Amino acid sequence: MSGIIGYGVYVPKYRIKQQDIGIPWGSFGMGEKAVCGWDEDIISMAAEAVDNAVKHSGVKAADIGALYMGTASSHMVEMHLSPILAELQDLSPQASVLDFTGSVNAVGTALSQCMMAIEAKRIKCGIVVGTENRQVGPGSDGEVSFGAAAVAMVVGTEGTIADIEGVESYRTLFLDRWRNVKDPWVSNYFDLRFFRDDGYAKHIEEATKALLAKINKKTSDYKLAIFPQVDARVPAGAGKALGMKNLFPDLTGAIGDVGGVSPFLCMAGALEQTKPGERLLVASYGSGTATAFSIVANDNIGKKKSTKTLEKYIAQKAYVDYPAYLRLMGNIRRVPY
What we know:
The chain has helices at about 20, 40-55, 80-90, 105-120, 140-145, 190-215, 235-240, 250-255, 260-270, 310-315, 320-330, and strands at about 5-10, 15, 30-35, 65-70, 95-100, 125-130, 150-155, 160-170, 175-180, 185-190, 225, 280-285, 290-295, 320. By secondary structure, the chain is of the alpha/beta class. The protein has one domain (about 5-330): Thiolase/Chalcone synthase (Peroxisomal Thiolase, Chain A, domain 1, 3-Layer(aba) Sandwich), CATH 3.40.47. The strands form 3 sheets. The protein has a 9-stranded mixed beta sheet with strand order 5-4-6-7-1-8-13-12-11, with helices on both faces. The radius of gyration is 19 Å and the shape is globular.
C-alpha cells in the first residue's frame, strides 16, 4: 500500500480583496484571494511546495523515481514544465517526469498515476505536485474567485505518515469550463446549478460511492471530507449527497478558488491536525471526472512536523489594489516606448 511520506504547500503572500475586483464591474466578493507576486508563477510556487515536501519527507533525491505535475494553468502547449522541478531537486535523469493538464482534476490524476507506478514497482517513490494560477479576463466571475497556490506530496511505501487505502474515479462527457489554445482566459457555461448538481456533486458522489464499496468503508468511518473548494457553498452539495456534514473549513474567503490544488492543499492542512487511525476522504473534480481517495493516518503522523504550515502561509500576507492586480495578471501593459 502506498501512502504519503511528506507534504509541502505554498501560498503567495500577496492578496487582493474580492470586493475591490468586483466594484468596477458591478459585482461583489466578500473575502480575499491569493495572487502571484511580481517574480512568481506556477513553476516558482511548485518549486517551493516540492522543496517543502522533500524536506518534510526526509527522502533522498536518489530514491525518487518520478515527478508528476498537475495543473490547469500551464502556459506551454509543447514543452513539459515538470523537468524544471526535477532539475531543481537534482533527480536522476532516469526519473520519470510528466505534466498532467487540461483539467482541474489533473492533480488527482497525477496522484493516482504515481500510485500505480509504485504498485507496479516501476518506482520506489515519487513526487506529485499541483500548482494553479489560472488566467482570467477582467470582469469575469473567475477574476473575483480564482486564487494561486501550490501543493506537493512525496508518495511511497516506506516511512509513510498516512496511507492511501484506495482510489476510484468516475467520468462522464460533461463540459463546464475550458480554455482553448487560442483563448487568453478561462471560459465556462457557468450555470451554477448545472455545474454544482450535475457536474461537481454527482461526479464526486459516484466516485466516492465506488471507492467505499471497493474498500468496504462507510462515510461514518471518516473524520473529515475534503472536496474542491469552489466557493463556501458548493462542497456542501457533495457532502449532502453522501450524508457527510463534517467538511474541511472553507478557505476560499482567504485564498480563493485554487482549482486542482484545493483538495490536496486542504488535505495537507488536515494532516497537521490528524491523529493515528483517523481517516480523511479526499476527492478532486474537473471537466467531468472525479477522483476519490481514502487516506488513513498511521503512527508516524506525529513524528514529522512541518515548520512551513498552511496556516502560516495563509497568515502571512500583503495587499495589492486592483490596478496592480491587473498588471500582475498581464491584463494591462505599459506601451513598449
